[in-house]
Amino acid sequence: MGADKIGYLGPIGTFTEQAMACFFAGKDFFGVPYGDIPALIRSVSDGHITCAVVPAENSVEGSVNVTLDLLLSEEGLLITGEVVLPVMHHLLARQGLRSFKKILSHPHALAQCRGFIDRRFPTAVKEATASTAEAARLVSACGEPWAAIGTEEAAAHYGLEVVIRAVQDYADNETRFVVIGTQPVPPTGRDKTSLAFSLVHDRPGALHGALGEFADRGINLTKIESRPARRSIGYYVFFADCEGHREDELLAAAIEAVKRRSTYFKILGSYPRWEGRRC
Amino acid sequence: MGADKIGYLGPIGTFTEQAMACFFAGKDFFGVPYGDIPALIRSVSDGHITCAVVPAENSVEGSVNVTLDLLLSEEGLLITGEVVLPVMHHLLARQGLRSFKKILSHPHALAQCRGFIDRRFPTAVKEATASTAEAARLVSACGEPWAAIGTEEAAAHYGLEVVIRAVQDYADNETRFVVIGTQPVPPTGRDKTSLAFSLVHDRPGALHGALGEFADRGINLTKIESRPARRSIGYYVFFADCEGHREDELLAAAIEAVKRRSTYFKILGSYPRWEGRRC
């Protein structure tokens, strides 16, 4: 048995790589960067990698909508874990530079550091890139006085200096990542379960009725989101995260009851909830 | 009185520009492209532009999370309209090219055309850019056999040819845009209202109870989404869209009732719902 191959949304130096390192700390694994989420997730389906780590909520590398769509359309995939990390954006540049004509980063990272940039570098042009790591790569490759907003890992990888640390406007900002695999995780007593379901369209109270199945059993929902189903906007899939494991008696009963109310239903996975352990 | 200045998420040639043209068709206006959503929305607050058009759901130019956050934090802004457009991705290239080493676009657009690319151009490298229009610009500026996935407007603007039309994998994919302004819109009889609220944390059934205020009055929710509030994940703001205008008697009563259950409450706007008129 060799080390597990774990795929992550690359390139090297993204927050997703940090999340992988954090989740699999102490395990025998090596990380494989992927350029996009569909290729990454299909690699799990195809058995090329054991599992995949992708950003979920409040991500700086892009929306996870594509992840949710793929969890619905691909057979045999499960969410097997989650990681929550504080967002730490740093200002990166080539050695010795202290004033910048241009600041590059992913649009979400630029937005999260907007107050800092406007205060400290009011004349700098903000330029959007496809990822924070791509911004670091461009700054490293270019001779101009440019800076990137990105991670410490990206700075190390592209030979940049961390000019100013923790430049995000809200210190308590966090990003949630999910681990996607194929093997169900047994109950630990501190679990979460992710579900997807569709209800009869345009009937007032359909969602209220479904949520009642959880509320009546004292089950807490930690997330609810309606997303347009592929047909067109107006037809929705609901994504819900709730406390507990699908094998827990009460949750199993709630799941059965919601299933009976649904035109579409899928359990996306039960997995240990992140307890804020330090990486 | 001159023409209204309408800001939109640029650059020229994005889907958002199309949405603006569609929404304001027949009106006296001119469009001003902005590089990022925060600058665009703050320009409405500052009175530099009359209103702003930004992508909302299933967007190809990036998530609207930042829009929702700004609607909460900025005073005096309202959603004053919506536009829903079918997603139309075209393969764009310089004149006469038919085989491509690289295909560039926004990661969401690449994901939405993945089946097409893998089938027709299996050896092409997929490269992520900050927007679909930026992909067109890069393809236009570069001498290599590259193609972009983007709009007809981007093709025209950057002097590219539409090589293959409608290359998205799902023909019925749509994108929703919202118009943000400062003036309330009077009832039309065919309206939607967008709300944001927070409930007491971690109490099972809190959301179920709030949704009951709508269900009991026969009010249909067209969207519900929980988003982490700025504090940290685990504390949520709910974003809900419902049918009706805030001045409608039943909806006004439901709004008052939900407000009483909330630790935070804000009406984001009442506006005519998009009826699928053709642009």
Key descriptive features of the protein:
D-Maltodextrin-Binding Protein, domain 2, 3 domains, alpha/beta, five-stranded mixed beta sheet, 28% helix, homodimer, Alpha-Beta Plaits, 279 residues, elongated
Structure description:
The structure is a homodimer of 279-residue chains. The first copy, chain A, is of the alpha/beta class. Chain A has 3 domains: 4-86 and 174-181, D-Maltodextrin-Binding Protein, domain 2 (3-Layer(aba) Sandwich); 90-164, D-Maltodextrin-Binding Protein, domain 2, CATH 3.40.190.10; 191-272, ACT domain (Alpha-Beta Plaits, 2-Layer Sandwich). Chain A is 28% helix and 32% strand. The first copy, chain A, is built from 9 helices and 14 strands. In chain A, the strands form 3 sheets. In chain A, strands 2-1-3-10-4 form a 5-stranded mixed β-sheet, sandwiched between helices. In chain A, strand 1 (4-9), helix 1 (15-23) and strand 2 form a beta-alpha-beta unit. In chain A, helix 8 runs antiparallel to helix 9 (249-261). The two termini of chain A are 26 Å apart. Chains A and B meet through helix 4, strand 7, helix 8 and strand 12 of A and helix 4, strand 7, helix 8 and strand 12 of B.
